[in-house]
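Researcher: Re-running this chain for the archive, since the previous output was lost when a drive failed. Same request as before.
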Amino acid sequence: MPRIALATYDATNSPAQDADLPQLVRALREAGADAESRFWDDPDADWASYDLVVIRSTWDYAWRTAEFAAWVDRVDTAARLLNPAGVIHWNCDKRYVGELAAAGVRTVPTQYIAPGSPAELPSGYEYVIKPASGAGARYAARYTGDERDAAVRHLARLHAEGLTAMIQPYMRAVDTGGERALQYFGGRLLHASRKGAVLAPGMAYDAPRTPHPGLEPWRPTEAELAVAESALAAVPGGPDRLLYARVDLVDGEDGLPRVMELELVEPNLFLFLHPESLPVVAREIIAAVN
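Model: Regenerated structure tokens:
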């Protein structure tokens, strides 16, 4: 009976609850595993006692990046960790979007501004500023050319916290076609979902927001599948290292899908929306023990 831990976080004071976690633990147990969820920062957790540790919903990691990175290395040394430490470290820094673009993957155009670097803000089009280390649209906001002062203050806040800023054009198609999330598990497409725009005009970067508005099942197009698979193929070490992945896509001005983000750390699986995927996920996790 394999012993499996699903790493999560203490959501007592957070509105973001992992609705999938209890069902996934139960499905793993019914499939023959000794499974449980554990807080990733639990000082009493004996990670070496598990045959497999799967990162599931460590959704506070973006506020505690150094601590989380150290934890990832400790667990990766003590037990089998998936996704593995090298993948997690690479994906925690969204400068990977630039690496995907350099590898020929169609991505949302991205500019990076590190603390202390001169900042040239766009003019003539709407754009988004967000941190290169973040999750759940944390510290993200959209601006027009008339909102330069607010954008400068936003940059200053990110840099004061030691964060590199990302600047991307606001992809207007998200307001009509939404953002599509293609979920892969065990190397195959699991399911896909679509959600509406997260960032409203005039919304402050530190304002609360709904992370997955209007979430619904989605059937991906051939073009979406092609760009998603090109992104997975560009992951350092190859896609075979991945147990799970979520590719977030939005259409560009040319109507073609582009990678907005590649979620390899702790993506929400949306199993509550796709219950037919639950036994597949449980089976793939148990198969990954060996």
